[in-house]
User: Fold this.
Amino acid sequence: MRSFLAINKRNLGLYFRDYSAVFFSLLSMLIIIMLMVFFMGDINNSSILDAIKMVPGRGGDSDAVLIQQMSFLWVCAGILTINASTVTHAFYSNMIKDRTGNRLNSLLTMPVKKPVFVLGYVSGAWLAGVLMSIITFAVTEVIGVCKGMAVLPFDIHVKLMLLIMLNNFVYSAIMFLLATIIKSQSAWSGIGIILGTLAGFFGGIYFPMGSMSSTMQFVVKCFPFIYGTSLFRKIMLAPLETTLFSGTPKIIRQEVDKAMGMDLFLGNSQLSQYGKVGILVLVGLTFIALSTMYLSISKKKDR
Assistant:
């Protein structure tokens, strides 16, 4: 336990002392917020409003406002997923620096079991990611309130906190394995550029699932981004959807949820919320196991 806490404390201290790393790990979030405020505010609005107008007497100003708020939260949910991946990536930059500076060799020769070493790094990245994700969520909710939205209910906040913890666990595990394999700072920076570019796409932020071809939908479902984003959206949009779709045929809400990626399907079977959680947990545990195995079988000259 002492070794675990020591590794954790060291890595968290290195990360939060590097202000540039903290800033750039949040840069994707800041860019998407700016895009959302100035350019993406009306995404999906017209198609949802057209669906609501199919119901006699619906589609007025009050419905339009609810749809605008839904679109805002829809993008915010994607930001939380991207934020988890970019923050944990930035956190492990210090691990790459340790490797290039030959400090990682000393850490790996400590009398610490490999699972403890892995969990020490992963838990540090997890804590940093959770903290930054909470800050991100707070910023987006403040923006939403300023735009006229009501504060989300307490039970929604609790569910989101649990999901933030799960989501960051997954990317902490994934990024650790990549950090154990990548040998240079330039290669790690390249991974960050690719991650920032593709995370928004694979998370279904720039294009909703309904606008993708069946082939692209299959590709997107091969990555964990969409499952976390879908969970966030389903939870965050639930109160607004209950109000918006009150008195409308059930099929309208089902089709909207499917098109916007809140309901995911594997083949013809709809994936439940617990199924999405199970996939994320499995991905996280798998990458921790792979990281432990990789460190155990690595040659001494690579250390």
